[in-house]
Amino acid sequence: MSIDSICDIGDIIRSSGMTDILIRNVDPNVRARLKSRAAERGTSLSAEINAILADAVLPAQPVSSTGVGTWLAGLAAAADLTALDFAAVETAWATERGAADDRPPPFGDER
User: What is the DSSP letter of 64?
Assistant: First the structure.
């Protein structure tokens, strides 16, 4: 069975939902700045322009009601990090900084 009997290559391309836009008469300075900005971000000119257009017209993503601590705890849980892992990081950090205990003061119930 060939791919032609399953689908048409045109259908595959059209199914992505993407389209092209041609912009004429772009100021060379604008193009140069866009290329520079893309290079700074490590993206292509096309990806940079796509990001700028999306930021300009798409609604902003809702801000999460989750606090930073909860978010970080979720990341740690997803990575299967344990209290021992955190203790090892804290020890390495203290050793690198040359301090035996360089933690911030306790807050709330941590006393």
Answer: P
